[in-house]
Amino acid sequence: MGLRTGAQYLEALRDEREVWISGKRIADVTEEPGFRNMARTLAQWYDFQHDPAVHDLVTYETPDGDRAHISYIEPRSKEDLRRRGAAFAAWADVTGGMMGRAPDYMNAAIMAVGAAKAHWGQHKPEYGERAYDLYLKCRREDLLLTHTFINPMVDRFKPLSEQEPYINAGVVEESSEGITVRGGRIVGTMAPFCDVNLSFLSPNITVDEEDIYALGMVTPVAHPGLKWICRDTYDLERSHRDYPLSGRMEEMDTVAVYEDSFVPWEMVFEYKDVEIHNRTAPAVRFFQSLGHHVLVKNVSKTRFLLGVAHLMAESSQISKFINVQERLGDIVTCLNTMEALAIAAVEGAEKSADNGLYYVNEAAVQAGLRLYPEFYVRIVGHIKQLGGAGFMAAPDQATFEALGQGLERYFRGAETDAENRVALFRLAWDVVGSSWGGRQELYERFFFGDTQRMKALLYQGYNLEEAVSMVQRLLEPPQPGRPFALPDREPPAAK
Ligand SMILES: Cc1cc2nc3c(=O)[nH]c(=O)nc-3n(C[C@H](O)[C@H](O)[C@H](O)COP(=O)(O)OP(=O)(O)OC[C@H]3O[C@@H](n4cnc5c(N)ncnc54)[C@H](O)[C@@H]3O)c2cc1C
């Protein structure tokens, strides 16, 4: 089928999906207030791939001979990674990096799942074949994916095996045709607008031998016995001038509930195998595959926020104060860090001995993933500090229409007219103060795992040999005139 258009994408959403909000089932997400604007933005993403100005940049010729978004590419060189990064950036620059779940994010994820077919098929090859076929299906049909990897937050202390069964989605029974699945998984961001759900339990969550919860599958979002429970929508359906971001990029988060839902075998790629479950993170190389998108998105997002902060500071001339400049310089430092990591990720990419594909540099990705939650919170703090009461002096479009020139004197900036200053401050408030903005911050803190625990895991898994031996060499009892002890290895090659 190849690349879809926006219209084809929207048409596919008009199906039997069971999406619930505010006590009712949504009939059509493309028409539903609070949802329809996001659907339109996603349709624009699909149309963007056909735009002659970027078509060659964001798509590639697949081994089938058709074209797909380049986020689906199985990278066979650093050049492939560079091309993929440029395509990620093309859309992130359109949206100020404020769409964490642009479709290209999960396209790269399903590629990684397919590319790990040797892992899924290690004990039973058919699971590996299915994982790869599911990747091909998504690529060939240009499908939009959500994902649910986490068990519902009922009890984080007791292991799953000691909790009430089937809070987390698990297998109830199996037949020659498939399995019956019961229970919930979180957080299906974007799910109401997606075609399929990639679901396996995060390998950070412990499962027991032969566990019913060691289950990986790709089911349609519109699937019998599958409900999607939404939080409140943060798209207030106001004018885009009043809410320029939340009114266009309300990605929505959901809980997936499988109610004895039948899942045919061809949708299952991991099944009751604790060894496979435990090895998933390194085998699938999720950090590198998704982290590349995250780094590129962070560059656009930080550049956008720098622009917002700078224009705000200019509008009331506080940009002339050294303390304000220091804050702006801090945002520049965050941007420089993300840019440097995005470059290092690709230039330091490694070829996998398992499948011959190139994966971006893990150290660069880990650094970016763990630094950005702190950067983001800091940047939001800077913008709030620069804005002060200016956020409160920001009436909506209707008030401007009613009072017109009467507002000019009190709401303008030093050199900006009232309408433009207010538009800028409202946009900034959408980022730092609206419900949607609060969710953005939560997203940055958590979407790639809780940063505290992920840092602890990073330390637990880190090879400390070199660090320790360096200290030990320098601790050797000092003797007068004795030279430094040298490492037991060849000196590192010049870089
Ligand atoms: C906006 C948003 C969108 C998301 N989208 C998706 C998505 O599309 N798909 C998806 O699969 N997931 C998604 N996530 C979920 C994300 O992966 C999780 O939030 C993350 O893995 C942390 O899990 P948790 O939220 O259950 O928090 P928990 O792991 O329960 O942590 C909550 C708090 O308890 C502490 N804590 C919990 N357990 C322990 C422990 N064992 N030891 C020490 N401290 C502990 C943590 O440090 C943290 O402070 C999203 C999350 C957010 C906020």
Could you characterize what this model shows?
By secondary structure, the chain is α+β, with helices and mostly antiparallel strands. The chain folds into two domains: 6-283, Butyryl-CoA Dehydrogenase, subunit A, domain 2, CATH 2.40.110.10; 285-461, Up-down Bundle (Butyryl-CoA Dehydrogenase, subunit A, domain 3), CATH 1.20.140. It is built from 17 helices and 14 strands. It has helices spanning 6-13, 36-48, 55-58, 78-94, 103-115, 117-120, 125-141, 274-284, 286-315, 322-347, 362-387, 397-403, 408-411, 418-432, 435-446, 451-461, 465-475; strands spanning 18-21, 24-25, 59-61, 67-69, 145-148, 170-174, 178-186, 196-200, 215-220, 226-230, 254-264, 268-271, 350-351, 358-359. A six-stranded mixed sheet has the order 2-1-10-11-7-6, with no helix packed on it. It has a four-stranded mixed sheet with strand order 5-8-9-12. Strands 3-4 form a two-stranded antiparallel sheet. Strand 13 and strand 14 form a beta hairpin. The mean pLDDT is 95.
Helix/strand layout:
Blueprint: H1 6-13, E1 18-21, E2 24-25, H2 36-48, H3 55-58, E3 59-61, E4 67-69, H4 78-94, H5 103-115, H6 117-120, H7 125-141, E5 145-148, E6 170-174, E7 178-186, E8 196-200, E9 215-220, E10 226-230, E11 254-264, E12 268-271, H8 274-284, H9 286-315, H10 322-347, E13 350-351, E14 358-359, H11 362-387, H12 397-403, H13 408-411, H14 418-432, H15 435-446, H16 451-461, H17 465-475
Parallel strand pairs: 1-10, 5-8
Antiparallel strand pairs: 1-2, 3-4, 6-7, 7-11, 8-9, 9-12, 10-11, 13-14
The chain binds flavin-adenine dinucleotide.
The site of flavin-adenine dinucleotide (FAD) has 19 residues, from strand 5, helix 15 and helix 16.
